[in-house]
């Protein structure tokens, strides 16, 4: 016989997993909530960027973290990676249609920050 406490704990885990699968807010948050992720998407809203351009724009991000975030966004279908057969290799990143669909979210966050958090309206990034 299963102990009631462990059964309740197991049911809570199952419910949380189902909520994450079903709830569109939870699923979206899971994709964009990683540190730097929204800023990477923000930078790609203005067009295709190379790794070094993103690294310069995202002051303080390590190359390893940037690489991990870009790979995760590529796996999610948010961005595409294009590699050119050159020496040295040239790699460019751009938003897919799925990634472009996040642009209004970024714009809404920018507007919220300007209106409610006193962030400068001259920061167009």
Explain briefly what this protein structure is.
This protein is mainly alpha-helical and 125 residues long. The chain is 59% helix and 11% strand.
Defining traits:
mainly alpha; 125 residues; 59% helix; 3 strands; three-stranded antiparallel sheet; 2 domains; Arc Repressor Mutant, subunit A
Could you characterize the architecture of this molecule?
The chain has 125 residues and is mainly alpha-helical. The protein folds into two domains: 1-33, no CATH class; 36-125, Arc Repressor Mutant, subunit A (Orthogonal Bundle), CATH 1.10.10. Strand 2 and strand 3 form a beta hairpin. Strands 1-3-2 form a three-stranded antiparallel sheet. 59% of the residues lie in helices and 11% in strands. The model has no long low-confidence stretch (mean pLDDT 87).
* pLDDT < 50 runs, ≥5 residues: none
Total helix count?
A: 7
The domain tally reads 2
Helix content: 55-70%
Q: Which architecture of the largest domain does the CATH hierarchy give at level 2?
A: Orthogonal Bundle
Could you outline the blueprint of secondary structure elements for this entry?
Blueprint: H1 4-22, H2 24-32, H3 37-44, E1 49-50, H4 51-57, H5 63-75, E2 79-84, E3 90-95, H6 97-100, H7 103-116
Helix pairs in contact: 1-2
